Amino acid sequence: MTQTSAPLPGCCEDFARATALTRRGVLRGLGVAGAAWTVGSAVVQSSPVAAAEAGSGTGSVVVLSLRGAADGMSLVVPHGDPVYAAARPRIAVPASAVLASDGFFGLHPELAPLLPLWQAGSVAAVHATGLPAPNRSHFAAMEEVEDANPGSTERVGWLNRLVGDLPGDGPLQGISVGTESTAMFGPAARMSFSALDDAVVAGDDQWDPTDDRLRSLHRMWGRSGHPLAGSLRSAVDAVADLAPAKAVAPGDYPTTDLGTALSSVARTLKGDVGARVITVDQGDWDMHTDLGTLSWGNMNTNARRLAKALAAFFTDLGDVASRVTVVVLSEFGRRVVENDNYGLDHGWGNVMLLLGAGVRGGRYYGTWPGLENTYDADLTVTTDYRSVLAEVVATRTSASVATVFPGFTPETVGAMTSL
């Protein structure tokens, strides 16, 4: 869910421009009905899908995008490369402060809430990942990453291709929380909402205090033999007596956009409504200035919020966590050398995080290229980000990797187990 706060001071102009469905019956009704529904401000168009298919499948994938180009070398610190500290004399995370060190890499100390998951083998990092060639424009890079089909003139995202290759065709298989990710754009049915508690049947609002809209829909479809009737009746009945869903205590999630979004995602997944792919955004990672040190700065704040929200999310999921995999990525990384403003300018290579089901965790993956201490030096990409995503698709879904990533031959990363 995109941050609603003002852009960070010093962020580039390019970046600056840029519900609960508290009862599972409502979502199931949406998923099986071939009709248009209003969910918050979104209109969902769907085609019929058998009710038995709702909730089918073995796993769900949550894709969390760190908007603004997060500095992967601050989140997962290559302290074993001597150039790292030399190139960042003020903002480098010292080797003595990192967590889960393997002698070369370590986690930023503000990622401490994720340490129990790391130690349990449920979190892994893949470093020096990214696009095959540098693209330093935020929105051009976002679109390239999310289309994942270089050279194509079609505006179809890789997640839309993934959803379209899954069994069934209900819109609840693909969900965007907040602004719809371009990775979801395309012909396959999907839906989006900004707040789970805003899910409504169109017309059932303050202007209808006696619930005439719901009674009308129930009367219209109550005795119909149309194949959509049962689904619509179920949805109307569920909306009529919506009740707050029980979730993790509010204090367990940080009071941030990301905390709110992941709370909604957890409620959706626990509702078992057939959601297979969900996207969430966290903004404000464009740290040209005031990335800071371990004593102050925006990296500390963002890393802490990210870790707390993810830790609360997996606690909230409970037993459902055994079928949920989270992928964390950003459009590109930052330069090796710090600038004069305690920040970093646009770079290339980055880190990806994998959490949850099927992850061979507690380890760092990828081929480290070595760093150079020159003004315009980048972290060179040695693993195409699609290879990481392809491994998730192959091991956690039934979709074809060749369909999701046309013309791409992935390399073996080794960070995921089979279903």
TrEMBL record:
It holds the Pfam family DUF1501. PROSITE patterns: TAT. It comes from the Bacteria. Signal peptide: none annotated. PANTHER family: BLL7424 PROTEIN, DUF1501 DOMAIN-CONTAINING PROTEIN. This is DUF1501 domain-containing protein. The lineage of its organism: Bacteria, Bacillati, Actinomycetota, Actinomycetes, Propionibacteriales.
